[in-house]
Amino acid sequence: MFNKSQLSITQAKLFAYQLPLQTPMRFKTAHLNHREGLILQLQDSNNDQYYSEIAPLPGFSQERLSQVKTEIIQLLSTNLTQVTSYKSGFKSVQFALDCFFPYCPKQEQQQLNNMENVPLLQGDCKAITQQYQSLAYPNLIKLKVARNTVDSDILVFQQLCQLNPLIKIRCDANQAWNKQQANLFFSAIETQKLDYIEEPTCDHQVNLQLAEKYQIYLGLDETLQQTDFHYWHHPFIKAFIIKPSLVGSKQVIDQYITLAKQHHILVSFSSSFESVVGLQQLKNLANHYLGQPDSQSLVISLGIDTLKYFKGNLLKNEDKIQQDCKQLELLWIGNR
Question: Are residues 101 and 176 in the same domain?
Answer without folding.
Answer: no
